[in-house]
């Protein structure tokens, strides 16, 4: 039985970090939608479950790993942003959408984007 499962999952993506997070999100959405009686939300959670399983059984490893990599770097950025929320503020460049980190409590400052050189004024 164990070998059959291993053979079935070899070459497939399986449940990675993104899959597990989506699974928990779908589970929470399903519970909330059931408690509140929202049918549309329930359908969204079902679609999320289906997507999680499609990703888990997918043989397109490079695409799934790229998605998971993007998710992990986004998660890391959010974690860093949360840890530095008392000392820094994060702004997006209006031109190229890059996140820029500036020190908090400096009043109105002119921010220059390190990628495209765009300048904009924000209160920190
Ligand atoms: Zn920029």
Largest sheet: 2 strands, antiparallel
- Average predicted local confidence, pLDDT: 93
**How many alpha or pi helices?**
4
Rounded to an integer in angstroms, the radius of gyration calculated over CA atoms is: 21 Å
Bound molecules: zinc ion
Shape: elongated
User: Span between N and C termini?
Assistant: 60 Å
Domain count: 2
Q: Give the tally of β-strands.
A: 4
Low-confidence stretches: none
Label the structural class.
alpha+beta
Which oligomeric form is depicted? single chain
Q: Helix proportion of residues, in percent?
A: 55-70%
How would you describe what is shown here?
With 124 residues, this protein is an alpha+beta fold. It has two domains: 1-83, no CATH class; 87-124, no CATH class. 56% of the residues lie in helices and 16% in strands. It has four helices and four strands, in the order ααααββββ. It has helices at 2-9, 17-36, 39-56, 61-83; strands at residues 88-92, 99-103, 108-112, 119-123. The strands form two sheets. A two-stranded antiparallel ribbon has the order 1-2. Strands 3-4 form a two-stranded antiparallel sheet. The longest helix is centred in the middle third of the chain and has 23 residues, at 61-83. The radius of gyration is 21 Å and the shape is elongated. The chain binds zinc ion. The site of zinc ion (ZN) has 8 residues, from loops.
Layout of secondary structure:
Elements: H1 2-9, H2 17-36, H3 39-56, H4 61-83, E1 88-92, E2 99-103, E3 108-112, E4 119-123
Antiparallel strand pairs: 1-2, 3-4
The structure holds zinc ion (ZN).
